[in-house]
Amino acid sequence: MEKSPEPRLNLRRDLGWKKKLKVIVNSMKNIVNAFVPSGKIIHLVDQKLPGLLGNFPGPFEEEMKGIAAVTEIPLGKIILFNIFYEFFTICTSIITEDKEGHLLHGRNLDFGVFLGWNINNDTWVITEELKPLTVNLDFQRNNKTLFRATTFAGYVGMLTGFKPGLFSVTLNERFSIDGGFMGVMEWILGKKDAQWVGFIIRSVLENSTSYEETKNILTKTKILAPAYFILGGNQSGEGCVITRDRKQSLDIYELDPKHGRWYVVQTNYDRWKNPFFLDDRRTPAKMCLNQTTQENISFATIYDVLSTKPILNKLTVYTVLIDVTKGQFETYLRDCPDPCIGCCYME
Predict the structure, then answer these.
(1) Cα–chain-centroid distance for residue 273?
(2) With contact defined as beta carbons under 8 Å apart, do 6 and 59 qualify?
(3) What values do phi and psi take at 216, rounded to 5?
(4) Which helix (H) or strand (E) holds 135?
(5) Which CATH architecture has domain 90-333?
(6) Nearest to 198 by CA among 88, 114, 332, 105
(7) Hey, which bits of 174-248 come out as E strands?
(8) Which DSSP string do the residues of 293-340 spell out, in sequence order?
(9) What does UniProt list as catalytic (predicted)?
(10) Burial of 34 (0-12, 13-18, 19+ CB in 10 A)
(11) What would the pLDDT profile of 133-169 be if each residue is shown by its tens digit?
(12) How many angstroms separate the CA atoms of 200 and 318, rounded?
């Protein structure tokens, strides 16, 4: 039997994304050099990271090489661009179920904290440079859609996506002492028994055929960085937050509409702990959903929830809304006009 071809990614080369990718890679280089002015870190990136290729599972190695060739950006910096997402993604994800058992999945992706503040226009540098790199992708096999995703041109993993009719999945970073830096260092030093979080999301989108299969993989697979996997299905009750450390699952929090739990909300803090007081997006999200009520949940009302400050903030790159059953998928680039502070849900 002939092996099925790899999913084909159609990304037109005339969209200007190559120049935009060069801009953000240069910004990342400047940020690294600001911490280590000698330039030794970037030298190591250019000289050493390409040698790690061959340790990445396919097709990621080939894609990163192709991106480097097309953009004429050194391969080491392309690998660095892909590694950055293991550490700096701060997000809010929501799954809801209406009275008829219909599921909706929404998320804000926030990225760029600590990666440079522009005092001239009060924005995070990397956040603003990511917006023009944001793309909706249609992955195809044999000319048929396999899955759809929102990602950044040049990044070969996935953080947000869905398989029409089957399931949706988003990734939120989880802060931990035994975090992504430790996992990446172990991987570089030769311990290759764990997967990159962005790569495992892409893998399940490509290969999993059901909500339960995906849930099992995301629960049990060793990963390089602690994470929250937010997973939605196509049947009543098929929605959960999987809280992971690098080696095992710590908690699976599921929809339970029969007992009144018609939504789950995940930011970047374990649900059994209080969020950091300067970054409480969980409380306003739950308050907004409760005020909306299960009867009125829709794309429009979830968008409103995700547009409430501080759920929407200066780090927010995009908002995505997903309806797995209907195959609907909407992505919005976001801005948070000043004053982008406070909690307008309390005003």
Answers:
(1) 22
(2) yes
(3) -65, -45
(4) strand 134-141
(5) 4-Layer Sandwich (3.60)
(6) 88
(7) 227-232, 239-244
(8) -GGG-SHHHHHHHHTSTTTS-TTEEEEEEEETTTTEEEEEE---PSS-
(9) 91 (nucleophile)
(10) exposed
(11) 999 999 999 999 999 999 999 999 999 999 999 999 9
(12) 21
d(CA 13, CA 11): 6
Domain ranges for the chain: 16-85, 90-333
Cβ 216 vs Cβ 242: under 8 Å: no
Q: Which residue has tokens 């629960």? A: 219
Question: What is d(CA 21, CA 155) in angstroms, rounded to the nearest whole number?
Answer: 10
Distance from C-alpha of 69 to C-alpha of 72, rounded to nearest angstrom = 5
91 is catalytic: yes
How far, in Å, CA of 325 to CA of 53, rounded? 38
pLDDT in tens, 189-248: 777 888 889 999 999 999 999 999 999 999 999 998 899 999 999 999 999 999 999 999
CB atoms within 10 A of CB 276: 11
Report which residue type is found at 344: C
Give the chain's radius of gyration (CA, Å).
20
Which residue in 91, 240, 336, 344 is the catalytic one? 91
Q: What stretch of H or E contains 265? A: strand 263-266
Identity of residue 147: F
Residue 98 corresponds to which tokens in the numbers above? 């209406």
Length of the chain: 347
User: Which two tokens mark 150?
Assistant: 């929102």
